[in-house]
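User: I'm putting together a teaching handout on how sequence relates to shape, and I'd like one worked example. Could you take TonB-dependent receptor from Chryseobacterium ginsengisoli, show the sequence you're using, and then write out its predicted structure as tokens right after it?

Assistant: Happy to. First the sequence, then the structure tokens directly below it.
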Amino acid sequence: MDKWCLFEIKKELKFKTKIKTNYKKYMAMKKRSIFLLAGIATLYFNNTYAQETTPQDSTRTASIDQVVITGNSRPKPKIESSTAISTFSAKEIQKQNPISAAALLQRVPGFAVETSGGEVGNNLFARGIPSAGAYEFVQVQEDGLPVFEDGALQFANADNFFRVDNSVSRLEALRGGSGSIFATNSPGGLINFITKEGGNDFKGTAKLETSTYGLMRTDVNLGGALVKDKLFFNVGGFYRTDDGIRKTGFKANQGGQIRMNLKYVFDKGYAKVYYKKLDDRNTFYLPIPLVQNGNDLKEFSGFDANYGTYSYRNISQLNIPQAGGGFFSRNLEDGIHPKVDVLGAEFKYDLGNNFSVLNKTRYTNINMNYTGIFPSGGPKSGADFAGLPVSQGGLGMSNYQYSMVSSGAIVNPAYVQKLGFWAIDKQMNNFVNDLQFNYKFDKGNVTAGFYKSSWKSHQNWNWSNVLATASDKPELLNLVNPALSPNATGYSKTYNGVIDMSFLLRDSQVQGSLNDLYANLDFNITDNLSFNGGIRYSRDFYKGYGVNTTTGNLNNSGLTTDGTHSFLTTTADDNMSVLGNKYTYWNYDVNRVSFTTALNYKINSENAVYARFSNGFRSPNEEAYYNNMTNLSAIKPVTTNQLEVGYKYYSRTFDIAVIPFYSTLKNLSFTDVFSDGTSENKFANTTNYGVELEGYARLFNNLLEVTFNGTIQNPKYKDFTGRNADGSTFNYDDNTVRRMPKVYFNIAPAVNITKSWRAYVSMNYYGKRFQDEKNAQTLPSFSEFGAGTSYQLGKIRFAVDGTNIFNTIGITEGDPRAGSPSGDGTIMARPIMGAAVRASITLDF
């Protein structure tokens, strides 16, 4: 635990009366509290196993000993925090060995996480709040400041800019509650990764990992003292390369990061500076074709559901002329490639008379190239794609001929697929400062702060469509009309496999200037009853622009398709996008107050109950601004109200948290970007009620450990009626919120075979969902199983971890870019990864 946290806790205890433990008073209180009855029942576990010794490879740090800082104005024992918060120590993270940050967050109740995108680009939905994806209603933080101010910018999910490695000390994941008081745009919660700091003892970790999919990864972390008791350092990071679980034919993931910090501790506080460099590229996996019959999913012919992907080497290169001159080149092998530089500092000082000041500041600069294959609809037979009328999704060709781009050989493909080759470049920066004053008094403390954040995101899009075989090793196809001469106008529908050349260009920018005042009060009404209240005033300013586009072609450019034929012979360039010189500028102001209030009753040292109400908001997202640049009155901040109550029991061998909640949401805008470049422009309200469960038990003389988390909920649309783009009306009132399971949980039992040898299995269950708001397409429930074993030999740990060991075909989303899902038959969906095994050796020294 951080030395400063220990110092703060000791100071805090000076202001509290010692907890009374008179047995008679305790028994009388039991009769007046149903929650206490539940607590007494669980004491069995504590009494039975109180004298046990923890195995070397146990996964759990006792929650009763844990102190949390996220969503609180001061370090606070977990049982005294009136929040729904889950914690994971570095040791727990190591044992779980998550393949991505999203995989780790699957262990948090209330967070429905989709992990099928790969290592990055995944989606998290907090407490049933719907969104287009990303981390729209939660804020992902490192050491209490955002990874980037807005975690749901287009093609810039927060997890693109963060990696879990051995330099992480712990994770604290807060749902709802006080999230909107301590951060912006976070009514769904806070996800705070806290990094390691050095201590007086030099310590280090080195890890080497390999896998069944060509992984080679090295993690190193070192920390210690440069000057004993005064100056400490920590440096850590990783480098990794692998082929990807889905077979791309190239290195799917390659790169790494390094983090370092230097901390100076003096009598009245500390000062810390730190730096992070991330340069990593990851393949992003999109929907593939499957065959659905009710709840039964099968592979599409020629496509491996567990290991196949359209993101394949044979279609990885794009090089096409532009209507405005020059060429546009892109390499799919670059995938999602962020280059991130972070420089930050933190300062705390005791001003005397129980006053202290804390200031955190950080500058983040990001340059990211994003390249991915996005299917445009589903596969069609070669005959249907070419011959069907345009109104039915075909090209209306009475004569057609397919050939391979690679060899020129004439072929008759059973199925073809139009694929979007989407390229996005983003330049982003964020300067943030959080200044906080704290005053402690006999019964509690008051915190007041000013939060300032200035950020900018500038993006350029260049999207094309290619034509390929509908297989997991796709080949580019050319399509021509053999009844015409190769010199005839419109002879070809493609240009070296490209069927729509740069059909969408976009140049846009968003800037945010956030100016937020906040205050928080912790007050101990009695020794056991505490009050928490917080308020945040947000005066935020957003502005941006979008560049208009026109259409053009290459007919009169003087260029040729093959050195001989002009672009008059192909239709591939007929609707090329051209950036104009007309800019649409916009400004949008946010002037809102968020607040929360809570009571926490600590029944005894192991049992507590709490109740909390919170009101928060999320500013409109990037796509909502772009869609409504000329009419910003159509959009409003999304507001939420949440009520939660909770019971917590923490001991050294048994934990349980039961947290019922109810939430309402207003003014949600739908912003899915479709494969043709358009997007939705609908608005809805939602309600949700549910219960979050989280538990842990160490049983049978430490032989068995069980961790569990689960969520039961019922998210519904309210007042969701309106008109579609084609003029038809819709009424989705009381429909289930899309992509939200009503039940999902994770359970992971582990057996400590000896004090050093451990084996575990895990099960992730994801309940039935609907892909769309009209509830037309069902996403069936599925269970994913993992298993592994580890052996601790002194300071060396050997481990083997398997994921999806039964090769389950479980889909986390359909195709949100298709617009109108059809239900059964051939569908487009994104399945979880196939079975994979990783093996690692870790040395702690």
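A couple of points you could highlight for students: The chain has eight helices and 48 strands. The helical segments are 3-13, 23-31, 34-49, 90-96, 101-105, 179-182, 382-387, 622-627.
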